[in-house]
Amino acid sequence: MFDSFFLGGFECSTQRRHDNKRLDLTRSSGHEQHAAQDYAALSGLGLKGARDGLRWYLIEQRPGVYDWSSFLPLLRAAHQSGVRVAWDLCHYGWPDDIDIWRPEFVQRFARFAGQAARLVEQETGEPPIFCPVNEISFWSWAGGNQAAMNPNARGRGQELKRQLVRASLAAIDAVRQETPRARILHAEPAIHVDGGAGSRKVRKSAEAYRVSQFEALDMIAGTQAPELGGRPDCLDVVGVNFYPHNQWYLGGSTIPMGHHAYRPLAAILAEVFARYGRPILITETGAEGSARPAWLHYVVGEVIAARSAGVPVEGICLYPVLDTEGWVDHRICPVGLFSSCDAQGARTVYMPLLEEIEYARSKIITRALMKPPFSVAGPIAGL
After folding, report:
1. Integer angstrom CA distances of residue 319 from 99, 261, 345
2. Would you say the pTM of this structure is higher than 0.85?
3. What domain of life (predicted)?
């Protein structure tokens, strides 16, 4: 899908927080103003693939009227820099005049997705890569059960998940109607939940929680809740989002890497592939501060192990690739390959992470030359 194994992910969240304040990370990171420099810098370091997003809330402020001025500079900057982008169509945010719980949300989103597909192909001459709805599972939990972000509900997580699946499926159909060769990416958190020394009931609950990570993709594929309209062909590429905090004890603390309860990433990737039989992309991964290179070293080692076992992992996206404002406290989080920018758009490179990328590239290329290409079967496997 991409011309480099490593990708850079531009944080593009646009949700309303629990206090109704809207975030716009594309703007606050400086990427909105300095997209041309950002993409040139990414390409200059050999990262020829990226994740980025459309801000639906800006594009469709009136029903059926699309203002692409917030998107076109990003699209053109990426294309001119030779960076192929997987575009998020809905990264937690939507226009203020839409009620997310009503059928109109699905209909409006599908029309928007179709128009976006037509625009991308017209501008670039290439079929688009779209992630219709980012992290359905997390969004359903945070927005439907915890009231931590829009739609700020409690006890409605399953209802929200089903609605986001409907929207994703409708968007896929609309995109393919406009551009049949479009690629579809679904990005979902990969987690592990352990019952620890708890009772059998606790351990059973932990396992149920762990397995729930597959619900959204199962719905997309039509193997769960088929009344939503899911189909196997709606699964194209499975994106896995994996961070240091993605493993925890049920109701308790994070499981530290190296602990006996910590599940290797390679095993998680193998389970995902066995379940869906689709190519896999690490769509988000990263750590903060000085942990950045060490975390990437771990992830790369696990990806190499998974690929050696026949799991078709097609790339790793550093996410976010820019130091980014925190969702809650607005501090600048040192998480990126590039720093926050000055007034002219200049950013500095975090050299320890770049050195780890260069080391990882040599390992992955060497391993790739030793193995034949992957062959991924068409139908979903393991279900």
Report:
1. 30, 25, 19
2. yes
3. Bacteria
